[in-house]
Write a structure and sequence with these properties.
Elements lengths: L5 E4 L11 H21 L7 E4 L9 E4 L4 E4 L7 H19 L3 E3 L5 E3 L2 E3 L7 H5 L2 H18 L1
Parallel strand pairs: 1-2, 2-4
Antiparallel strand pairs: 3-4, 5-6, 6-7
Helix pairs in contact: 1-2, 2-4
The structure holds zinc ion.
Zinc ion binds next to helix 2 and helix 4.
């Protein structure tokens, strides 16, 4: 059984991000409207959290931190519902990869994917990054789930 997924944001407590409140609230509603359905298709940690806050400028739409069991979403990106859903599903797919044991993070920045060690992926360009097998796998999940959740 799943606990409720905890959704939070630091936007409302930070003056310089106050203007992001409306779009953040919108994205929180979008998340709440699909999360129950996501649980039917993905193996998610039972203490999963979703946190809305600016990440690094213009780079990440979202990211998943397995240590914190937290999906971070940058409300400055993801302004349309479709873009938001793509980001959310992509990050939840990473959570699912970790929960299933397909993906493991090492302290030195290397990654194990289905038992194969990938050395530190630090500074690679976007094309190379999106071709990493766990990224391609996450995008496959987006492609499959988006039509179901978009309804
Ligand atoms: Zn990814």
């Amino acid at each position: 059984m799943y606990n409720n997924i905890e959704i939070s944001t630091s936007i409302r407590y930070n003056k310089s991000y106050k203007h992001l409140q409306p779009i953040t609230n919108k994205q929180i509603n979008w998340a709440q409207s699909v999360l129950e359905k996501c649980k039917d298709y993905l193996l998610l940690p039972k203490d999963l959290k979703i946190h809305f806050r600016p990440i690094y400028k213009d780079i990440y739409f979202g990211l998943y931190c397995n240590d914190l069991k937290t999906v971070f979403i940058d409300p400055r990106q993801n302004k349309s519902r479709k873009t938001f859903l793509c980001t959310l599903i992509h990050e939840l797919a990473h959570a699912d990869q970790f929960e299933n044991g397909y993906l493991e993070d090492n302290d030195d920045g290397s990654v194990i994917w289905h038992g194969v060690l990938h050395p530190c992926i630090g500074n690679i360009n976007y094309d190379k990054y999106s071709n990493l097998p766990w990224e391609k796998d996450a995008e496959k999940v987006v492609k499959n789930l988006l039509p179901i959740l978009k309804k």
